[in-house]
Amino acid sequence: MTVIAKTDARDAAWQAVLGRVHALMRGTRMPAGAVVVLVPYAQLMGEAQRRWARAYPDGFAPRFETTRNWAARVAPFVPEGDDLARDTARDTLTARSLLDRAGLAEHRDVLAAPLLEAACQLAPAVAAVPPEARDAWAAEARALLAPAGEGAALRYEAAVARIALEWALATRHATDVLFGPQVRRATPALVVLDGFQPDPLAHALCRLWGEDGACAVPLPAAGIAVTGVAGLADDGPSSAGRGAAVTGDIAFHAAADAEDEAQRAAACVLRHVAEGRTPVALAAIDRALTRRVSALLSGRGVAVHDENGWTLSTTRAGAHVMAALRACRAHASGDAVLDWLKHVPAAEAEALRQAERWLRRNGSSEWTVALRGAGLAGIDAAGTAAPDAEGAPAAPDGRADSADGWRVLVRQAEAWRGTLQSPRDLPAWLAALRSLLQATGQWERLEGDAAGLRVLAELRLDLAQEGEWRRLDASGRPMTLAEFAHWVDEVLEAGRFRPEFDGDGAPDAVVVPLPQMLARPFAALVAAGCDEKRLQAAPEPPGAWTQAQRDGLGLPTRAVLEAAQRAAWDHALTVPHVDVLWRAGDEGGEPLLASPLVLALQATGAGRHAADPREPREVPLAAVPRPLPRGDALPLVRLSSSAYSDLRHCPYRFFALRLLGLQESDELGAEVDKRDFGNWLHAVLQRFHETLRDAPVEDEAARRSLLDAAAEATTRAQRLSPAEFLPFSSGWPALREGYLRWLADHEAQGARFREAERRCVQPLGALELIGTLDRVDAVRSPVPGEPASVMVIDYKTENESATRRRLAAGTEDTQLAFYAALLGDDTLRALYVNVGERGETRSFEQEDVVALRDQLVEGILHDFARIAEGAPMPALGEGAVCDYCAARGLCRKDFWSE
């Protein structure tokens, strides 16, 4: 009965309004087509027409319009010159042109967006003033603005405000046609249905029509006060209390985080749909949250219609266009180029996989640096790809058919990128972008997608629209790729994509802003995002206007916005069933309270705290046993120190990473880390010692210069960014001095450098032991006449305590013993050299390394004999090695049944 009563109340409100309009038509004998009823938003036109058809099925209906729709019917608006078109693609260029003419060209990239925002805020206020009265209004408006003279405080803000005002005043507004006498003669009666925030233009038209020809009617309360046309006059109650006198069944849901909130909201919608309460209004308070809820509902087969839509920049089509522009920048990252190529239909899949492997092995974050490192040439003057250093030819059709197919793709990508490098005017940029999208096959995909068609239309990429830009003053100015990409980004950020509902019948749920629920028949409301951050009781007014300027210019004030927000909230609560959801914290850990509107509602005692609407589902435990694979069918021929270390730590890790050959993919463009520093230091010391061996010097200053030169040469060779390498290069002087002191002591003990990065292979049964030794020295024997012994050195940049633990582990640490096995010398010595970044370099010798080597060799033979016999290779799941193991997701350690 409650639902029926609330539905009857809304029907009675509509009946009251439509009845008075009908009475006006009968009393004045006006034809229906002579009456225009202005509604507050476009979605209400269809609702009003349907209700009129049900109430008065015979005869004609009045015209239900919005001001913009009405003006478009009277005379379509075609912007010209500097007109504010309310089209970001055009208006952004006009804003930059106005700043240039105002002497602010050097600041136009910073001031263009605030200027356009201010002009769009002023435009409705200016459009609400009759054209013949604008000169007087403009004089008063100019007096409200601060001077923008040189040296004045906030002079740029003042200049933006003044230019925006003059722009809005000089513009021909699309709705100016409604002030014309011909429209007044053709429409003798005008009825304005007010929303939560009255439309200044609609009320200005009411005043122009006069009390005998126009009136304003508030929606949607059952008791409606009407002022104006005599046929509509009524002594009913005031609309001041149009808020919700009666609220629906309100349930409160406090969620833990965004995902919890989205799941609860989707569960609420599913419950309403299952119980026949449709359509369900899904309040568009937080767009990201609403899209997540819509995705969850679509997965459950719920028909959702999104009336609010979303920005074009968040659509797949918009992302593809921006990815192409980012990839074409001169200093684009390898990640950006690879991301673009993965969405290019013309890129052959196998060649793309090869190119990705090349980029990951290369390790360079910048695409052009990676190209130089691979010996690939750039683009010639004609914009075509030149052959690389090895002269590998490209296939005629651009497709890869060999192991070097990635080179063909890379050269093709460079040819595509080369077409978007030089500055040009906007029409030329649009033509170049169109050609790029067509060449890569992306154009066809955009044309086959509704959002893609919208992107093409917003950017005017169609040939038929190219001439529009040549009429603009700003379009002839050369733009760089960065400026053009910024313009495209602004257009896509401002554009909206509202998909058509493609389901059968009416949608089960409608995504709608709270103000647009006005006078519409929703059976339930799910309002997600009702926290203090996203649903404010008093929204901040847009723009940097003062209170006096807002009052004088007719801009909405905080009080007006607060009243509209509270009215929309109160009206939403009249829906028969309401679910209010908010989260207790954001992703960053910031705690959140419910919205002040929700807290005020709870303070009145309304509503109830609801249980979790998600249906619990019992999932039987499916624990998995520890994996016990066998490796006898995957014989290993070459064994390195790190591979054998994997076997010692965890046999399953060895099976997955070494026998199966599974590997993690390295990050593209990753920051320089400790591992990169270690590789750099190894290369520096190799270069330094080889130079010192070939041209010995004893002077400390000369050695310091040699070491610095080696460091600089290695940095260039490894293409390390000085900015990224700064945390390590800042400690280089202390490290250098500490190492030189250690080297002097080391040589004083009779040691001399022989070679660095020595690659060794040593047969061992069916295996080959392989490895690269950081350094090999010759050490003078303490016994005169005996030959020098061999010393194996391994550099470490770890903490000294970690190095000490290695030596204390005995047979558990296999690295130096493995290196000893590679050389096969029974008199060698081995030590770790810990190169400290704080100026302390120390050596730690492994005692009895020959005995440890013999034990290691025996252990290797035993272990691989057992693997060959089919012994299981269990996942041990013990120790810190599991914390960073790449095979942890395969062994399923967290789900073992034991």
Concise account of the structure shown:
46% of the residues lie in helices and 12% in strands. By secondary structure, it is of the alpha/beta class.
Give a written overview of the molecule:
The protein has 898 residues and is an alpha/beta fold. 46% of the residues lie in helices and 12% in strands. The strands form four sheets. It has a seven-stranded parallel β-sheet, with helices on one face. Strands 15, 16, 17, 18, 19 and 20 form a six-stranded mixed β-sheet that branches. Strands 2-1-3-4-5 form a five-stranded mixed β-sheet, with helices on both faces. The chain is elongated. Residues 1-6, 221-245 and 379-402 have low confidence and may be disordered.
CA gyration radius, whole angstroms: 38 Å
**Overall 3D form:** elongated
Helix/sheet category: alpha/beta
Total strand segments: 20
**In percent, how much strand structure appears in the residues?**
5-15%
Helicity range:
40-55%
Strand order of the largest sheet: 8-11-7-12-13-6-14
Number of helices: 34
Distance between the amino and carboxyl termini: 58 Å
